[in-house]
Specification:
The structure holds two protein chains of two kinds. Chain A is α+β, with helices and mostly antiparallel strands. Chain A has two helices and three strands. By secondary structure, chain B is α/β, with parallel strands linked by helices. Classes of the chains: A alpha+beta, B alpha/beta.
Chain lengths: ~80, ~230
């Protein structure tokens, strides 16, 4: 089976995110005063051949631990759809 | 008696020539090795130069750490061999797990390229023995991701175990680095990573040679102990 995998990598909670701060500042300047806690990360999408959704998730997790995310500075979330 | 130094070139390295020249000026037999090579050609020490390996894609150093040569660098480091990572080289060493922590985006958001005053905190490493303890000097930095970050317990351990090699002078921290850290080493003191660029100020021709000490140190480290 083939799965569509969405990986979302974000700066670790509590870690300074200067990009997020700058964008939040810009949003406030534009009048979006309600915007708070802006964080900027990256989205990675891939197609993955696996026997099951569980296997796809497990593979994606290993990819994140090994390469896609840095455990010191980033958190990640995985979404798998068939 | 000289020392053989391997300067690793990744696609996107751009301080490789300067690093090679600085090592040669100090008297080393310095050669380039390509990122696809799988051995260091019998080198006694390794330099990972600055630049933007693999375009800094994903994260600085994240892809370079998986290049074939890094397996050899890993073995060399584990055997107690000397390794110096400068700027992007420091980022690669952190990504590879040869040094703890990570280099995050500068707190000021901008790419910082300027001379910065630093202090040598540790002089018993292969790259800093030529300096007096606490020596201060001005070295250029040039990076967008140089803010040293590590979990609190790791930072504490780095301080307790004297693994901070180089620190930005008080009030001169250019990137928001934790504890003003500009460079660290592994527990053995043999693997060193620094954000500033000593290889850019290693020749009086360019106006300053204060960085030459990092490379002179290496030669002294390799020399047989006096009997």
């Amino acid at each position: 089976m083939t799965f569509r995998v969405h990986v979302r990598v974000t700066p670790r909670t509590g870690l300074l995110d200067p990009q997020g701060q700058a964008v939040q500042h810009a949003l406030h300047e534009l009048g979006f005063a309600a915007a708070a806690e802006v964080r900027i990360g990256r989205a990675i999408e891939l197609r993955l051949a696996a026997a099951s959704a569980a296997e796809a998730t497990d593979l994606a997790r290993r990819m994140c631990d090994k390469l896609l995310a840095n455990p010191v500075t980033e958190d990640y979330a995985i979404e798998v759809e068939s | 008696m000289t020392i053989r130094v391997a300067v690793v070139r990744f696609p996107g390295s751009n301080c490789d020539e300067d690093a090679l020249r600085a090592a040669q000026r100090a008297g080393a037999d310095a050669v380039f090795v390509w990122h696809r090579d799988d051995d260091l050609g019998g080198a006694d020490a390794v330099l990972l130069p600055g630049g933007f390996s693999y375009g800094d894609y994903l994260r600085s150093g994240a892809i370079a750490r998986f290049s074939p040569i890094m397996k050899a660098v890993q073995r060399h480091a584990e055997a107690g061999g000397a390794v110096l990572g400068i700027c992007n080289g420091f980022q690669i060493l952190c990504e590879a797990g040869l040094l703890p922590g990570a280099l995050a985006r500068n707190s000021g958001l901008t790419f910082v390229s300027k001379p910065v005053p630093v202090r040598v905190e540790r002089t018993d490493t292969p790259f800093t023995s030529a300096f007096a303890p606490g020596a201060t000097m001005t070295l250029p930095v040039a990076h967008g991701e140089g803010r040293y970050t590590a979990p609190a317990d790791v930072l504490d351990a780095l301080e307790t175990d004297r693994q901070v090699v180089l620190r930005y002078a008080e009030g001169a921290n250019p990137n928001g680095s934790a504890n003003d850290i500009a460079g660290i080493c592994n527990a053995a003191g043999t693997v060193v990573g620094i954000m500033p660029h000593p290889e850019r100020v290693a020749d009086p021709l360019v106006g300053s040679a204060v960085g030459a000490g990092f490379f002179d140190s290496l030669l002294a480290w390799a020399a047989p102990a006096p009997r």
